[in-house]
Amino acid sequence: MSEIKSEVFVQYRQNEAEMNAVVARIKEQYIHKGHKEEEIKSLQVYVKPEDYTAYYVINEIEVGRVELFK
After folding, report:
1. Which of 8, 15, 28, 58 would disulfide-bridge 69, Cβ 3.0–4.6 Å?
2. Is the whole model's pTM more than 0.85, yes or no?
3. What stretch of H or E contains 7?
4. DSSP assigned state of 4
């Protein structure tokens, strides 16, 4: 069975965010803090469009947030 390529978009008012881009920004922020991408074993993303923010938890320890619409 072949893998299905999926894209997830969040739309709010006149804004749109593609979730793969949001995850990439989260990883970039994590790496900028001195970590390595290979250290990421789990990632939970909580999207809150009304705050224009995506909150995240990496490895059930590291928490942070990134702009949702960029």
Report:
1. 15
2. yes
3. none
4. P
